[in-house]
Amino acid sequence: VSQSRYRVATGNPANIIYVAPNGNTTTMGTLSNLATAAAFTTKFDSAGALQYTLIVNAIVNADQGQLVTTDSLNNVYFGGFYVYNATTANINYISSSNVLTTLGTLPATSSRSAFLTKFNSTGALQYTILVESAGADTGWGVACDSFSNVYFGGSYNGTPNIIRRSNANVSTTIGTLPATAGSDVYIVTGK
User: Fold this and answer.
1) pTM for the full model?
2) Which of 9, 112, 114, 173 is most exposed, with the fewest beta carbons within 10 Å of its own?
3) Distances in whole angstroms, Cα of residue 15 to Cα of each of 45, 48, 59, 74, 105
C-alpha cells in the first residue's frame, strides 16, 4: 500500500490534522472496507495521540482528500473530490478505539464532484458543500479568516450546481456556476 500526504493543518491547542489522498492503512490504526482510493483525514492531539479519522468512501471508485484547514473555533474543513455514479458515498468517523460510525452520505454523482465537509472540533458532521456537474469538478483549496468565514476553491467543467447538504443528508441547491466549454475556477464562501 503506498501512501502520500496532501495537506497538514493545525488546530488550537496544537492539534495536527493530516490528510492523505488514499490508502488502506495508517500507522496509528487500521482503515478497513475502503475503496481503492478513499479520502481520509486524521486528527492527532498535541502529544501525537490519535483522536479520530474521517473518511469519504465511495466504495469502488477513486476519492481524493486534497484540502484541510481549521477555523478559530477548531472546526475542521476537509475536502477534495469523490467519484461514484451508482449510489451514495459514505462519510465515516473512526474513533481512537477503531469504532466506525457512518455520519452521513454524499449523493450519487454523474462524474467527479468536489466536496468540502465541515466537522466540529469533536468530529461531528455539520454540513457538506458540493460542486457538482456532469464534468470533472475538484476542490483544490480551503481557507478560513478570523471571523470563521470559509473560502472553498477549485476547478469545474460544465454547469455545476452548488449544493449544501445538511448533517441530516438533506440537499439544497444554493447556486449555479456559469457554463464553461472547458475548465474554469470557482470560489465559494460562507460560514
Assistant:
1) 0.81
2) 173
3) 4, 8, 29, 9, 26
With beta carbons less than 8 A apart as the criterion, state whether 53 and 26 touch.
yes
Given a cut of 80, whether residue 79 has pLDDT beyond it is yes
Each residue of 26-55: pLDDT tens digit? 444 555 555 556 777 878 777 777 788 887
Q: For residue 132, give every residue at least 6 positions away whose Cβ sits within 8 Å of its Cβ, in sequence order, or none.
A: 107, 109, 113, 114, 160, 161, 163
- Banded pLDDT at 136 (limits 50, 70, 90): confident
